[in-house]
């Protein structure tokens, strides 16, 4: 295999044939991995706590909360592909093509994230409060897209071989799972005790046949709102720190099939080309279904533990256990996928969570059983983090080999992947909040009717299990297996060697 000349090398020379491609330095992998922390820290905080915040802390009705989430994701449907297209069309500047997007979006993202967790005065109308949260949510999601779309596209521009790229993805997912742990851990430890206090006060009110408000409940509510503000500031500080590590620790490396220049295709032509690629659309559908399954469970988990599972005040500990398990499982699943292949690993890994969800809905008020089940769920969650993102570069390589004239569309590919992940999160929250609305859930009530409890159980197990089974079927028919990956590697090496010979003859 011939090695391509490095950036800055004379264009008329090629590397000596037979030399291996230079390995990707460990420090670059680590800095790249740390750069994914903001997306997961804020995403886990939103996934686990935004729904309970809007309903129990901001005192919105389920209809208003679901409206905010639905419109926010509708906005995302525009921003993610649009930003992916703008990134693909942006020129390569002094500091790169992708890094400037990340650096300049961070200050705005941090500001809107803090404002999202702030509760406006109770004297304003419900619709004014809804408008506040909708604007903050949409602005933060737009800034998040400006950060994460170019960041995830960096996977294709780190340098090194296909194995190095998979290794960098494993580092990234390990850090991102740990970041999910940090985000939900900080948020949960700061606000969890206040939610437990509200539950205790509700229990005391039930004994005195009261159900709505008291002075103690009002004071606890104010303290809970203050705790959410403190948690948002803490996570925003880590957001900025991670961005600095990425900006100063990673340099973009263009490749033979990805020169990192401006894309010449118009928007709708680019859209048609990538969505016509069978491998990519298979992967998108499977990823959407699996992500939706996990995020339905994630969004309802705090509610279920508080109101149906008998774990009020302890759900934050269960979340930490699950995420610690997921973080420790990433290296194990990386070894498994190297040994048995990506398709086999994703099918086995996703199936582990199914019996755990069934047991959680059948056994309540039993902390040890919940611990064992969330450990199983954490192992499966690690697969969701690692495998789909590890399979995406293969689909992009397959596209570039079959469409050698369609260059510099990597950001477009990754933008739709990011969009589907966030769309699944918003759709999951929308489904759960609307289900609670039709079940008769009322914010501020200390007791709930049986239909609310039944709805929580259905959202906790049957719905995600059906989605997981559909996802596993789609993954089964995904066309890129290990044989195709080896074939693509040979084709890319032949392409690089042909470029080198053309350069020598020129």
From TrEMBL:
Gene3D superfamilies noted in UniProt: MFS general substrate transporter like domains
Lineage top rank: taxon: Eukaryota
Transmembrane intervals: 98-119, 227-250, 280-303, 315-333, 345-363, 369-390, 411-438, 458-478
Annotated GO CC locations: plasma membrane
InterPro entries with a match to the protein in the record: MFS_2, MFS_trans_sf
Recorded GO MF terms: symporter activity
Family indicated by similarity: Belongs to the major facilitator superfamily.
Annotated protein name in UniProt: Sodium-dependent lysophosphatidylcholine symporter 1-B-like isoform X1
